[in-house]
Every structure is written in C-alpha cells, then in structure tokens.
Specification:
The complex is a heterodimer.
Chain A (H helix, E strand, L loop, with lengths): L12 H20 L3 H18 L1 H8 L5 H12 L5 H12 L6 H15 L2 E8 L5 H15 L2 E8 L7 E5 L2 E4 L2 H22 L1 H4 E2 L2
Parallel strand pairs in A: 1-2
Antiparallel strand pairs in A: 1-3, 3-4
Chain B lengths: L1 E2 L1 H14 L5 E12 L2 E6 L7 E4 L5 E7 L4 E6 L10 E8 L1 E3 L8 E2 L17 E3 L22 H6 L9 E4 L5 H10 L7 E7 L3 H13 L6 E6 L5 H20 L3 E7 L1 H14 L13 H9 L13 E9 L8 H9 L2 E5 L1 H5 L12 E2 L8 H7 L2 H15 L7 H17 L9 H12 L11 H15 L1 H10 L4 H16 L8
Parallel strand pairs in B: 9-13, 11-15, 11-16, 12-13, 12-14, 14-15
Antiparallel strand pairs in B: 2-3, 2-7, 3-6, 4-5, 4-7, 5-6, 8-10, 16-17
Classes of the chains: A alpha+beta, B alpha/beta.
C-alpha cells in the first residue's frame, strides 16, 4: 500500500480505503470544534504545498525507519503553532500508527466527504475550448437545478472533443460532445449500411 | 457487377436522418488493472451484477464481481489492447445473442459474431444469454423420442425430447462421435441442432463442421465455437449463448438438440476466472458455485407444456473423465444433474466395440417413456441381458465347462454385441433399428457365425430397403409391433435367410 497516486488513474484501493477511515475521524472531530473548513484547508495546504515542495519530508513521513517519536517531534517543530490543534493531533495519531504517509489520501477523502455532507458535488466539465464566464454560470446553475445540490465545477479542456461538452458527476457521464456523436453516427451508419447491403445486394449491384 | 452509388447514398441518408440527437448519459468507471481476460474497474458505482460494459477498444465485458471498492469485469473479447486508465462504460443491458432462422447453418462465436466468413448474422431478434429456466407448471413429462440413430443408445438408453443425457468417458472414446451421429440423424425431423464447442482444438472443430457439411447437416445446425485459444470468459459463456439460441425455437413450439462439447472445459474456464477474481477455491480448486453453473444451464433444457407450445430442448452434455475417474468433482456433479448417462469405456473402444458404451452403468432415467412401442418390445430386457452377459463372459474366460443354457446365453450375448456395433456417420431410422434388433433378440442370429453378424445385418437391411420398404414405413407410422406386423417381419427374415449364406470374413 504505497502512496502512489502520481496521476489520476493509478489508484491504490487500500490507501483510498484507509484515507476514508481517517478522513471520517478527522472531519468528525473538526465539525465538533466548528473548524472543519479551517482544518481541511490546512490539510490541503500541507499535502499540496509543503509535502510536494519537500519530497524528502514526504519520504520521511512515509519511511518506517523514522520512528513514531521522531515523526511526532518533526510535526511539533514544523506545524506546532501554525496548524489547528485537531489537525496536529490527527497527524500525530497517524504517525503513531505508521500511517503518516497516507496524508494525501486522507485529504482527498476528507474533501469528498465534506462536500457530501454539505450537499455539494464536483462536476468535471470537459470542453473543447475554455468556458466563458457566462457559460460557466449557466452550466453550474443548470446542474445545480437538476441535481438539487451545490455544484463545484472542475474544468478540463480537451481539444479532441471538437465541440459540445462532457459533464461527469460521480460515475455518471453526460456526453453531448461532437466527437462522440460523430463516432456514434459512424457506427449506426456502418451497421445499417452493412445490413442493407446484405439484405438487398441485388438492388445495389447492376450487371455491367 | 458494379455498385450503384446513388442507392448507397440514399441508405446512408436514411440512417443519418433517423439518428436522434440526444445527450448520451452513461455510467462510467476506470480500469485499474487488466490481464488474463479480466479487468478490475474503479467506479461504475451503479452497475448491476451481470450487466454488460463496454471498453474503448469495442470489447464487451460482464460485471462479474461487485466489491466494495471496485468491480471485477470479465472481458469477452480482446483484452490485450485495453489499458490501465481506460474509461469503461456501463451499457445498462444484459448480454444477448442474435437468434432466429438467421443463425441456422452458421458458425458463430459465443457473442453471435460470425466465424465462417459469411458476414454478420442478419436478424434483429436477440435473446438474453442468462435467463432462469421455466418452472414446474410450464413443463410436461418427456414423452416423445429423440432418435439418435445409434442402435445401442436408442435401444438401451433411449433419449426423449427435453431430456438431458450425459455422454461421459475418457479422451478418445468416441464421445463427440455419438453427438455428431445424433445431429446427423435429425435430418428431415425439423429438429434444430446446436453444436457448442468449448475449449476444443480449432482443427477438431473445423473437421466436425466439414463432416456436418458433407452430410448436409449444416442446413439445420448452428456451431458455436469458443476454441482452446479463446479467452476463458468466452469459453464460459458459450454454452449459455448456444442455449439462448436454442430457446428461441423451443418457445416457438419447435424442437432443438444442443450438444455441449465439453462441459469439463467450461468448468475449467470458470475456475480460471473465479480464481483470478479471487473467489475462494473449493474442491479441486473449483469455486463453490460450479454446481450452479452447470445446473442452471442444464435446467434450461425442457419439454414445455402444451399451453406454451410444447417445444423442447434436448441436451447432450459431454464430460471428459481422467482414467475413468467418474467420482471426480465435475463428473459427479453433472451425473447428478442430468437424466441419465452414456458411459464410454476405452477398453471396449479398443476391443472394437463402437460405440463403446458400457451397458451396465449407462442409464436413461426418463427416456423409456419416450421409446416407441415397437422398440420397447424388441429391446425390453436388452440392457440387463447385456450387463449379465458381461459378467458371465468374464466368468466363462476361466475355461470351465458350461451347461447348455449358459452357453446359449453366451452365444446370444456375443451376437448382440456384434449387432450393436455401428459405424460412424451411419445413423439408422427407428424402423431399421427395430428390424435389426428383432432379428437379434428373438434368436434369428443364433445360427449365424459371430464374425459374420455385421455383414449379415448390412445385407439384411439392404434386402428390406430394396424389397420390403412398405414394412419399414408401416413400422414408422404405427410405431408398434402388432401381431400382423410381427408376422410379416418373421416372414421377411425367413425369406432373407433362405437365400443368404453368411460370409465369414477371412
């Protein structure tokens, strides 16, 4: 169960599962203190900035050769005053259990969980050209209307779509892109043409 | 010949106009890992067990294992070009295959794609591959005969329409030969035949197709082939796909015969898939539900009630044993599911007794009700007599002196064994079988030298076909040996014997 989420499709199911468990715990504690936004922001900051900029620190967090007490001391020195006490305690608990290397998974899972609790969903919008502000508003409003939830857009530009857009919410994909329509039309035409050709071969062919 | 381009354009235009412009909504997941014909997919959170999914390379898959974090998918097709990270699309439907008259005479893969180079199957009708068999109220007991054309089987272990009769034996004992003869014998009976080759050598399948073609049997037969080089998931679904095609005819009131050649290979393919999916292994490393895998398949062979049209599926599953070991896991399972078994033995096969059926342990649990009366009369106690003869024969080899009654029983037995030998690809009609067995069981062969029996029978049947074909049609029509017909048969035998000198081959 190495922390290996280098790009989106490489997924360690064990780490994700672990992340979910710790995320539920840290979020539960943070909500009680009314500090969930602050804790999550700081956690995201540590994962996305501190650890990414200092790979050696990330390696130390992951390494079983650095003892739990040592990790705890490092955490105190680095984040002792700058982060919320709940987050610091969580990291110390994780260090004690040898799970400090999975902070990234915890952060991702906590964000998802927080969105879910708050009734927010993330919609990935893939378009051929960058969205204009007007379109962005319209898309998020329409989505919010039909899903009944707050929608946060995650925009991706994929030029091979040619036109239209592909919206992904959770595991459901709404595809109105020109590329997929063309390929679908191609398939229908090919199948239909092959069928017609065999059915009425004499109609198409004339003796010369 | 030249293509008329205007016509082609008009067809294309019609297709494009019919194309509706809807947003494509689909459930997707991402391939985490892929290999050995299975893929593990993240996402697809709403997918149902057995639902079809599609990979970007066009291959279809079946959601096989639904786990907490991922979905195990079996890939029916090319899995070598699927990559990690590919988007998998749930199709929201169950796997179906094309059915109807268009599949007859074709060689197809288990998804209904052509393997014979004759183009796509021209039908819009499909049936789901996995359905639950009809219940008790929708069935009726087996009562019509399903003639295999093989004397030994039709006389001793008769098969009825709607029955499941297992053909079991070691490798190279003539299991497939029996099934092929049964298919050849369905000519002119309106029975549609389905030969499902699972895990066979492609060369073996090719030669079977050649035989079927040569005897004109492809006109009413469909071959579904998942060869040894096909991925395990295809080998696993092949029998279900073939049965779905046969069911189409059954539900229309027709009759079909399905040969599963062979189910031990299907069980092996299923074991491979299950182990790769990390389902726990059980006995002989087969998964716990391998029994259900076969029972739900064979339960789909049925004789439907009159209200449903009275159609039927007769199945001849084949199981290959290792060194005659019938108490292995898969053979015992399938023996207990089927309505009887034809057990083929290598020592009989090599002694020249072909079909190499062991009369002692071959049974048909329901077929007796389906035998025509005439056959019952001539072959009534044949199976037990023959089994007793085998015991006696072993005893007689000790060289002891025998009393005349025992000697007579032995002599009759030797002649019956000779008479039941039958060359491959020469199925006999029920009437011919009755004529032949009548001569044997009523003692008209007792004065013919043992070695001359098969030639005697051949000439005898030829004599009847040439001079007394009305007798054959009468037996076929009446289906019974009335006193009058019995008298005529006796007269025919007398007439034949008076002008025939048995020839003992040198």
């Amino acid at each position: 169960m190495a922390e290996t989420a280098q790009h989106e499709t490489v997924l360690d199911i064990g780490a994700e599962q672990l992340g979910k468990t710790y995320a539920r715990a840290v979020l539960g504690a943070a909500v009680r203190e009314n500090a969930s936004d602050q804790v999550l922001d700081q956690l995201r900051g540590i994962v996305n900035e501190t650890l990414r900029e200092h790979p050696k620190l990330a390696a130390a967090f992951h390494s079983p050769r650095v003892s739990a007490a040592e990790k705890s001391r490092i955490l105190d020195r680095l984040f002792g005053t700058s982060v919320h006490p709940i987050l610091l305690k969580t990291m110390k608990v994780m260090a004690e259990r040898g799970r400090l290397g999975y902070l990234g998974a915890v952060s991702r899972a906590a964000d998802l969980l927080h969105d879910e609790i708050a009734g927010r969903v993330v919609a990935e919008v893939r378009t051929a050209v960058p969205l204009s502000d007007e379109l962005r508003n319209e898309v998020s409003q329409r989505l919010a209307q039909s899903l009944g939830k707050d929608v946060r857009l995650k925009e991706v530009v994929v030029s091979t779509l040619v036109g239209g857009m592909v919206i992904r919410v959770g595991d459901t994909v709404y595809d109105s892109s020109v590329a997929s329509r063309i390929s679908q039309m191609g398939r229908v035409a090919r199948d239909g043409f092959a069928r017609k050709l065999l059915e009425q071969s004499e109609r198409f062919a004339s003796e010369v | 010949m030249k293509f008329n381009s205007d016509e082609i354009a008009s067809v294309l235009q019609a297709e494009i106009e019919q194309f509706d412009n809807k947003i494509d909504v689909r459930e997707v997941g991402t391939v985490l890992e892929v290999g050995d014909g299975i893929a593990r997919v993240y996402g697809l959170s709403g997918v149902m067990a057995g639902e079809m999914v599609e990979f970007p390379n066009g291959a279809t898959g079946l959601a096989f294992n639904l786990e907490e974090n991922s979905v195990g998918v079996i890939i029916l097709g090319d899995f070598l070009t699927i990559q990690e990270g590919d988007e998998v699309k749930a199709l929201g439907t169950l796997l179906s295959v094309p059915v109807g008259d268009a599949v007859i005479g074709r060689v197809l893969d288990p998804l209904g794609n052509p393997l014979d180079g004759k183009g796509p199957v021209q039908t819009s009708e499909t049936r789901p591959v996995e359905i639950i068999a009809k219940g008790i109220a929708d069935r009726q007991p087996v009562h019509e005969p399903m003639q295999t054309g093989i004397k030994a089987i039709d006389a001793m272990t008769p098969v009825g329409r709607g029955q499941r009769e297992l053909i079991i034996g070691d490798r190279k004992t003539g299991k497939t030969a029996i099934a092929i003869d049964a298919i050849l014998n369905q000519k002119h009976t309106g029975v549609k035949c389905f030969y499902i080759a699972i895990g066979q050598k492609d060369s073996a399948v090719a030669s079977i197709i050649e035989v079927l073609n040569r005897h004109g049997a492809m006109e009413y037969t469909t071959v579904i082939a998942a060869g040894a080089s096909a991925p395990a998931p295809l080998q696993y679904v092949a029998p279900y796909a073939g049965t779905a095609m046969a069911e189409h005819f059954m539900y229309q009131g027709g009759h079909s015969l399905v040969v599963y050649d062979d189910l031990s290979k299907q069980a092996t393919a299923y074991r491979q898939m299950s182990l790769l999916m990390r389902r726990p292994p059980g006995r002989e490393a087969y998964p716990g539900d391998v029994f259900y895998c076969h029972s739900r398949l064979l339960e789909r062979s049925a004789k439907l009630s009159k209200e449903l049209g009275g159609g039927s599926i007769t199945s001849l599953p084949i199981i290959e044993t290792l060194e005659g070991e019938v108490s292995a896991y898969i053979p015992t399972n399938v023996i207990s599911i089927t309505d009887g078994q034809i057990y083929l033995q290598p020592d009989l096969f090599f002694a020249g007794i072909r079909p190499a059926m062991n009369a002692g342990i071959s049974v048909s649990r329901v077929g007796g009700a389906a035998q025509i009366k005439a056959m019952k009369k001539v072959a009534g106690g044949l199976r037990l007599d023959l089994a007793a003869f085998r015991a006696l024969e072993a005893f007689a080899q000790l060289g002891t002196d025998l009393d005349p009654a025992t000697q007579a029983q032995l002599d009759r037995g030797y002649r019956m064994v000779e008479l039941l030998k039958q060359p491959q690809y020469q199925p006999l009609s029920a009437a011919e079988q009755v004529m032949s067995l009548f001569a044997g069981t009523r003692g008209h062969l007792d004065d013919v030298p043992i070695k001359a029996v098969s030639q005697w029978e051949k000439d005898y049947l030829q004599f009847i076909r040439d001079k007394h074909s009305t007798l054959l049609t009468e037996i076929t029509e009446k289906g019974d040996l009335t006193d009058e017909i019995t008298k005529r048969v006796l007269d025919v035998i007398k007439e034949f014997k008076s002008g025939y000198k048995p020839v003992v081959p040198a």
